[in-house]
Amino acid sequence: MITTATADRPPPVPLTVLSRWYLYAIHGYFCEVMFTAAWEFVVNCNWKFPGVTSVWALFIYGTCILIVERMYLGLRGRCPLLVRCLIYTLWTYLWELATGLLLRQFDACPWDYSQFRYNFLGLITAEYALPWFCASVLVERLVIHNTLRLRYHHAPGSQAGAGGGGEGGGCGGGGERERDGGTGGTERRAAERRAAERRAAERRAAERRAQSSRAQSSRAQSAEQPSAEQPSTERRAAERRAAEHRAQSSRAQKQPSAEHRAAERRAAKRRAAKRRAGPQEGIKPSTFLL
């Protein structure tokens, strides 16, 4: 089960390479025991089902399936299932031959196919082509696919381990480790990218909503409280007309009209004429001097 991280719980991490190798080794070991038991029952009708294998099978199957896992991650988007399983089968034959030759140098090879008709050096045989092909399908669809989905889940209150680059514990440490599982990190990185994209989209949506809210609030405030610093065009025009009217009134007060000036000139002329005519009219010759 894949879970998401919370504030109190770190996100689950994929299995390490060593953990996956261990699962693959156990799977191969178990399948070999079951296959030899079934073979013994079919050939000899032995109801005891004596399945046999060797400790070497753990290392052989664990490493073989781990390399098949790498092939699966590289070919799953390029080749169909049947082609991939054919490649896995060819690799299984090559790996069985190589490990058989190596173990035979120490007289430690636990299998011998000399009794089969189409064997090669007693280490591989064509009769096993169909079983290896079916095993390849099973390994990819059931074992590898589900193993890559496994995750370490951290217990609440667990502390980060020192020196291992991950959580203390897990396999061999009594807890859980937080190291990238190599191959399994591909699916983890894809999930992290999708989560990051979702978070970024949510942040952008929240920012858009906040901007829209601020714009609406600003428009509402502008409608309720018109700005006094920026008067309208009509108000400015009215102020200009009032200022012009006051200026005209001031000029009219300071500069008398033309009629007033003309009246003043006429009055001055009359006063001057009276002054000139005054002495001549007021002095008369006295008759007693004659």
Description:
A hairpin with a 3-residue loop joins strand 2 and strand 3. With 290 residues, the chain is mainly α. Residues 1-5, 159-183 and 281-290 have low confidence and may be disordered. It has helices at 17-44, 56-75, 81-104, 129-147, 185-224, 233-254, 258-282; strands at 13-14, 119-120, 124-125, 151-152. The chain is rod-shaped, with a radius of gyration of 54 Å. It has a domain at 13-155 and 164-194.
Could you give the order of the helices and strands? EHHHEEHEHHH
Strands of the largest sheet, in order across it?
A: 1-4
Report helical residue fraction: 55-70%
Major sheet, described briefly? 2 strands, antiparallel
Q: Sum up the overall morphology in one term.
A: rod-shaped
Count of alpha and pi helical runs: 7
- Spans of at least 5 consecutive residues whose pLDDT stays below 50 are 1-5, 159-183, 281-290
Give the integer mean of the pLDDT values: 77
Radius of gyration based on Cα positions: 54 Å
Share in β-strands: under 5%
Structural class call reads: mainly alpha
Report how far apart the termini are: 159 Å
**Count the strands?**
4
